[in-house]
Amino acid sequence: MTAKSAAAAARATVYGYPRQGQGRELKKAIEGYWKGRVDADALRATATELRRTNWRQLAEAGIHEVPTGDFSYYDHVLDTSVMVGAIPERHRAAVEADALDGYFAMARGTQDAAPLEMTKWFDTNYHYLVPELGPDSVFTADSTQQVAALGQALALGLTARPVLVGPVTYLLLAKPAPGVAADFDPLTLLDRLLPVYAQVLTDLRTAGAEWVQLDEPALVQDRTPAELNAAARAYRDLGGRTDRPKLLVASYFDRLGDALPVLAKAPVEGLALDFTEAAADNLDALAAVGGLPGKRLVAGVVNGRNIWVNDLEKALATLGTLLGLADRVDVAASCSLLHVPLDATAERDIEPQILRWLAFARQKTAEIVTLAKGLGGGTDTIAAELAANRADLASRAGSALTHDPAVRARTAAVTATDGRRSQPYPERAAAQRAHLRLPLLPTTTIGSFPQTTELRTARADLRAGRIDSAGYEERIRAEIGEVISFQEKTGLDVLVHGEAERNDMVQYFAERLTGYLATQHGWVQSYGTRYVRPPILAGDISRPEAMTVRWTTYAQSLTAKPVKGMLTGPVTMLAWSFVRDDQPLADTARQVALALRDEVNDLEGAGTSVIQVDEPALRETLPLRACDHPEYLAWATEAFRLTTAGVRPDTQIHTHMCYAEFGDIVQAIDDLDADVISLEAARSHMQVARELAGHGYPREAGPGVYDIHSPRVPGADEAAALLRRGLEAIPAERLWVNPDCGLKTRAWPETRASLENLVTAARTVRTELSAS
Prior knowledge:
alpha/beta; globular
């Protein structure tokens, strides 16, 4: 096919779409099912209608080929585990008794069976359920869900393409099951898994699929020759079968690197590549392998992870370069649109001109369709769209919101000394012990307490004008009083005020800093039914006034025990926002750090002796390629130190991280120079404690003993057992006792019981230590 005919054949597609619905109908239906208010049939009906709505929106916008299989009740990796029969033994009976309840048991756990481990999907804030595998794992094909979704789309008269997690990525994401040797490599199961994938492909072909997409984002990471050989073998096997649909192998989030020639040679009919995160690298690599003659190329030229309008002319130039490199070039977003909100037009509180800078899923869909039209018919066919796009880009570039000379001058004046504590850790630790006088194995929580219906109602009533600010603040004071009273009665050693006034750990601060925009309906799935509204970091950042001092000092006035000041760190403020793309991330991080530094200093000045600056996104934001790690970790750790280094030696600085693979960044955790770090560890059975010990981490640490992402209540014996395992790696004088994460999403009954058990466990182990 010539470049001209390839352009004429260009079509628009996407890899996935937001699942929740305009009003988060899926979240409400699932949580209603968990509480017994919604039955299984009603839940399935809601899911069916949401899929139908999504596909119709896509088709009406001009998308030629809609995705199926991207919808999920909880997580698409968990769906893959069900598809291939990788059910943990502890959940098998529940799944056999009721498939839906068993599915949710794997995700959330039960009182008798722990859930699957949860961690971040590459460098996003989406969490997936980690497959558990071992040398005895047996795979069996169950394509029921995938075939049903395809059938629903085809019945609507749509051209549909099922999307599956690819077999290589699935195994690379898996971990050894409990009781399996830690050095077991799930990739050794590839030859056992491929026939199952082959059966699913056959089932989908029989059901009417012309194409099936197999997502292999793990191949954009650094891969060993053995792993690349496994990918080659996988697609030689699947591609060599005759009873299958056409195969489109997709990668995203970064450049494909050494895996590109492997996939280019594979007997598959198409590749999908990301031309936003690493456009030049993927372009050069594609040209170097001689392109994809006779194959389909799906070009991800619209950023699927951020919310800024695309530069249409730049994207068209990229598409034009690609025309000579493949038999057919189609247009898509760089990845699933799962990672952005649904529709920017729902936002009524953002100035109309600024709103034109933003593209959520529906607007990105329109951009994809426009680009496909321009690629096929020439720029004259989209002249009006290009003119409007140029005006929007110019409006943003010239806006006073994006450039504050005072902020830029302060940032430019930062020196290395600003990021160093006045005394080394051993001297600080002695001063803190004398000042705080905490017991061995001090107990604390991570920060938030349950956000009750009453709190959410009060916040909604304030927004709607049904109560005034005085009435709202009285409710917050009462909630803080209850939280402090409960912690004192339970026997916790370092308390928190519970964050009753905060809607979200990033949004709360974003609403109080210049340069941020907040949305009302910009919901994005983080995990399961947990949705967040990432704020939009649009311009230069400063702090007009104190943000947390008032409520922290009020809580401290209610108790003689130390109350932690709670802040969200600069890297997490970036990672969990839609960050500006018109300057280096390091510059933005430094601006945020200076604003937070002012808050840290004000907290200390108001008498706060323990200040926690959370950085759960430090590992999440780590680039996918090792060669990019040093630059990122240098500015990320500098930003944390710039936030925290201005305090006295006897002020104890904490940080917190959760649900990521921390072993990759232990040196960076050390470089933060925090006095205490708390980390998720319950689901991973104290793996992080061993990783810290292996590194020789010299400071205090609290690996979690209570998994807060499950409704189950861990018994005191269970928490004590985890604590003893932590003591095998971390000395008692440096070990804290805490949950994995904040308690915002939990209910009060399970929170009370779990924290009482946590304190009991700490006292039990303290007694054992004193007797030994």
